[in-house]
Amino acid sequence: MTAVAGSAEVRKGRLFLVPMPLGDVSPAGALPPATVSVIVGLGHFVAESARTARRFLTQLPLSAPVQSLVIEELNEHTPPAAVHALLAPLLAGHDVGLVSEAGCPVVADPGSNLVRAAHAAGIPVTPLVGPSAPLLALMASGLGGQAFRFAGYLPQDAPARRTAILERQKEARQGVTQIFIETPYRNEALLKGEDGMLTVDQIITHVEQVIAEDRLSGNAEGLRRTQLGLTLLMGAAKSAGDKELARRFQALAAMAANKQEELGAED
What we know:
The protein has 267 residues and is an alpha/beta fold. The protein has helices at 27-30, 33-39, 50-57, 88-91, 112-120, 133-141, 158-173, 187-191, 216-226, 243-266; strands at residues 15-18, 44-47, 70-73, 96-99, 125-127, 148-153, 177-182, 200-204, 209-212, 230-234. It has two domains: 15-127, Tetrapyrrole methylase, N-terminal domain (Cobalt-precorrin-4 Transmethylase, domain 1), CATH 3.40.1010; 133-266, Tetrapyrrole methylase, C-terminal domain (Methyltransferase, Cobalt-precorrin-4 Transmethylase, Domain 2), CATH 3.30.950.10. α9 (216-226) runs parallel beside α10 (243-266). 34% of the residues are buried.
């Protein structure tokens, strides 16, 4: 193929999928050095919330002032027609970081449409290593990790939510661990009336991570009080959980609630 005189093909940038710490944890304590080294060299970002992204980036040893960074937003309010415009820096040769609100981007998070568009445009995509709440919960639960289903968010409508849980119970009884996540403001709706249906609960808090292997009837009040995001796991039904473990869970849930109140008072 003969190159046209005076023209040069611009190298396309790379789309990096940037994980965020879970909770009130510094990036240095949650992200590998190799991941941090990539992030600090980026000048363009796409985030669900520019404000959250800036707060995260100010905690890193950036090579440029945070005010000079270009941060575009991509969330549920972004029209599909606007996604392609977010590729402009990449097509111009700039590397771009797709930032999650917490944990790994695209997993129960906006951004898959941008990743698809990048693939279609021949832009390389590289996921960076970092924390993922569903996988951390699965690892620590003691439930089977050979076969599992990440079901994301459950339906908000109560009858639909109960139907979804019952459907997932069938797979759980067959040895397929079920993983759900929920946002803090829907904790009450999720837990109310579901006592005894979810046999294992996992909460990753701003204070500590703990597994309580017990039925929700024993732990629901503590979970409701935390006002923090939950990751819930469902496995095959077991006998009543260890009382001491449940007691520790209740104590840590109270600690998390108090910590959240302190954080709110500081804002």
